[in-house]
Amino acid sequence: MATSNLNNNPEITKKILSSGLICNDPFILFDIGASQGIESHWKIFQPFFRAYGFDPLVKEIHRLNNLETNPNIKYFDAFITNNNIKENSSRPWFPNSYQRSTAMYAGEIINKPYKLNFNNNDSDMIESNNKFSIDDFCINNQDINNIDFIKIDTDGHDLDVINGSLKSLKDKNVLGLFVECQFQGPLSDDSNSFYNIDKVLRNNGFSLFDLETYRYSKKALPDIFYFDIFAQTKNGQILAGDALYVRDYMAEGYSNKFCTLSNDKLLKLACIFEIYGLYDCAAEIIIYLNKNNCLNNMITKDFLDILTKKYHKDISSYDELIRLFNNNPQKFFPHNVIIQKLNKNRLIKKIYKLMRSFFFEK
Length: 362
Hints:
By secondary structure, the protein is an alpha/beta fold. The chain has 2 domains: 26-261, Rossmann fold; 328-362. It is built from 14 helices and 9 strands. It has helices at 11-18, 58-67, 102-109, 114-117, 134-140, 158-163, 166-171, 194-203, 254-257, 263-275, 279-291, 297-311, 318-327, 334-360; strands at residues 27-32, 49-55, 73-77, 79-80, 131-132, 149-152, 176-182, 207-216, 237-246. The chain has a 7-stranded mixed sheet with strand order 3-2-1-6-7-9-8. Helix 1 (11-18) runs antiparallel to helix 10 (263-275), helix 10 packs antiparallel against helix 11 and helix 11 (279-291) packs antiparallel against helix 12 (297-311). It is globular.
């Protein structure tokens, strides 16, 4: 569960970890919907890493715990929810587009229930009897005094998970969340819609930084599935997505309104931005830490040069990037960038021809 911008080789994250800048403060992940295990991109933080995975599939959790060799990664069979949820028996009408989708139709053709499709094809599926919120789990596990990131993928109950974690989001200084959301649904405050998820998270200090959307074609005109599973298709209506929410700590007045983050937390925030391919946001954090004498100039320059290369492969350093932009921002218009690359290629060809004539054609 990630965006297409995911960076599987986060260089400054590796340097931050190898330099020992956050070795006394491990990165802590909560994974809600952890079937198939903790995603590999988070394990870059090992050995300074702790993870708690939750899923209602009892046999899958048993399998994951048997396979896991890291004692700091633990899996729990449970439905994560909001204990204060009020049952709403009368939902308003809404255009349930999924019922008319190619994905639903395909399941009907081969007589494969929805739950089986999304639960590891386990025909003998056993669901957990445990049910609690993230806030309850943290209260019952006093050693968890910090959470850095929460991934939520519950196939329809993500808002309940968020509403059951509001105390932890604040008290544990959670830096970000990656949440599955639906764009179609009932117009009610408790529906698992993007609108409600966005409203709750924004009210608690999190801003939307990235959004991966998923299309579902109608059964009237089936399209090619995106993966080898009866789910999203190449074309069709946008029904669902994965949303990345992170604290926009560099926004003016943020710390006064929401929270103050330690230097360790800010370094982790930069790592999260780098992992999700938001290199400009990571640069903003690095510059802030340098201005506050939390990173020396040499480390800062190294980090900024690495981040520069992610956006501009033809520019040698961060200093050069800023000089070029300050001298003439219009050079960053797309047509000017293309012309510059063409001119560079022409120059390379001319040099090659000159060298060839000098060495081989005499």
